[in-house]
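Honest question from a wet-lab person: if I give you the sequences of every part of a complex, can you actually get the arrangement of the whole thing, not just the pieces? Trying it with mine:
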Amino acid sequence: MSLATTKTSKIDRLAELTAKTETSSGASLWREAFRRLRSSKMAIIGAVVIAVFVVVAIVGPWFAPHTPTAQTWRGEVFPNQGKFIGARGENWFGLDHLGRDMFSRMLVGARQTLLVGVVSMLIGLILGALVGALSGAAATLGGRAGRRLDDAIMRVTDLMLALPSLLLAVSVAAVMGQSLTTVMIAVGVVQIPIFARLLRGSMLAQGGKDYVLAARSLGIRKRRIVLTQIMPNSLSPVIVQATLSLATAIIEAAALSYLGLGNPDPAVPEWGVMLSQAQRFFDNAPMMSMYPAVAIIVTALGFTLLGEAMREALDPKLRG
Amino acid sequence: MSLLELDGVKVHFPVKKGILFDRTVGHVYAVDGISLSVEAGQTYGLVGESGCGKTTLGRAVLRLVDVTDGKVVLDGTDVAKLPEKEMRGFRRRLQMVFQDPLGSLNPRQNIESILSEGMAAHGIGANQKERREKIKEILAKVGLPGNSLSRYPHEFSGGQRQRIGIARALVLEPDVIICDEPVSALDVSIQAQVINLLEELQESMGLTYLVIAHDLAVVRHISDVIGVMYLGSLVEEAPSDALYEEPKHPYTKALMSAVPVPDPEVEDRRERILLLGDLPSPANPPAGCRFHTRCPWKQDTLCATERPELTDLGGGHKVACHFAAEIAAGEIARTSGEVVPAVREGVEDVDPEVVATSGSVAEAHDDAAEAADAAEAGEIAVPSPRGESTDAEAHDAADPEAPAGAADGDAAEASDGKLDKDEPVRLDKEDEASEGKASEAPAGK
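Yes, you can. This is the full assembly:
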């Protein structure tokens, strides 16, 4: 009897000891990552830049002082004679070669650029994640047949990765004809193998962890193990990559527009198209190409900063 | 009828080569024919150095790796070849506690989710509320506060995490719990906590354990029966006390001789058998007795040609050695290997933990002066307990037929009169670690 009482009291003591050192509520890793993100300067700068960009893209067109497509000041600009109008009270960023207001065009162009960036990133992310998840799940829990499937999928993505991304985008754009949709698909397709590989690799790394083994020994179904155990732990590099690839997508869309494979309607302002058109007049009107170029760079930088900050915040090695 | 019975269990991993076509070029014989039985309510301890296949065996019982051959009989049903679907039902009855407490818990799940997942999979508890009650009950049993439910694994300490791991196994009310190195990742004081907890749970809930460990003190403390593994097979199996009192297999003898004795007087006179060479690769195990390449009692007949079976020498003491009876009776003398008195004159003022690790290969060839000094002291102060001249041994070691390559170096040393001090390749690094723990772990009871 006395033996039994000492035993229970021992466990009680253990519990007491444990309870004392603990705070009352738990914090998930996501929440902790967010807390770390908030205290990172890089993240804040990136987030501010992105916020400005997004706000401009959404409300910009309503605040544009002039119609972006109207060649209102056509008579004042003579590209052939090297006569351009720079920044002035009426036109903050000056006029382009057809006498349109650059500032209004920049505001309206932001929306196009954001649209292209986000949609093509989503195409790459969703398709890439599907392929990668299938491949990763097959490789970790699918047995021998799964490994075969994984092998086959990975060879195809290798093939896609072997092609230079811009060349791939150009081919897609060339095959599908010229339109904004084409640009988005072309830029998105390039991202697919990157996301696929990333997620697969991350899942493979997680699949070998003890907690996956533990879940198997508990008798949990494989599909559920993939969804509740492996996936949540594999997602952080993909989230980081999504942020970073937004920057790439914007630059690539600009590059496609620059190469003349972008939106065929030249009247719709888009930063990449503007840059490509302004390049011809760089000698006489350098500022005309500066505005879209700087806008693209700053936006891309914003996404990159946030992406890098997220990478640090989500890094398991930094968990305190 | 034992609760869990293993019959000739083999786990072989194919070694693949080639770029396009995976050609099987060989096998790693991780577990190579193990038979053992675990009685209900008892604890079976499995010891062996790292790489001997003990973890693989544990995973094979749970079907986390495929069983190549043999039977794993749980309560009358052979689960080794059950289809995955039927196996899932059996998984409730076989649970595992993992070595790495943090790695075995999903960092993105809170404790409630971790503990209820298995219950949901096996339909224990009608709804989450019922499950939560049950989880709270189990948490109290393993000594965790009830407010742990909403917390995440990284917010707990190592010992607490391991208790969560134990709770995860317990909520399913399993018949057998396989503990794979349950305490080796923990501090010594926490080790005692967890081991005592395991024992208390066994008493109050009637659990059956298969404990896999390399720490001899831990295994002795917790086990009723102990099996010693070497290179994928059992070399000796005996009731815990019998094994520690009189190890019969040469490998077990060497293993036991590595455990320090808490009494410094005895410790200084204790003799240690140091095995030569390394653990052979399980991809290419030696023919005949797996241990014959390193065995200090190796005989010219049988050892290299025939694999010994595990035979009962009386009292449930089973040994897989052709000459176990003769060795026990003292009829056979050692033919190779080193017997080193655990003399520490040269390093007396050194912290014992440092001494325990000083046998590693890198430090074996200490600075010459110290070695010579110790050798001198050793020869004078310590009589060789077996009455064998060290010179004779040195010659044996230099014998061209001596199996291990390390012998050459030792022979050279011996001719310089340094034999007693110089330590050839030690058993295993893990044994080093266990030495450090051995004296402390039981003290924590």
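Two things worth pointing out. The two ends of chain A are 44 Å apart (CA to CA). Residues 93 and 212 of chain A are 58 Å apart (CA to CA).
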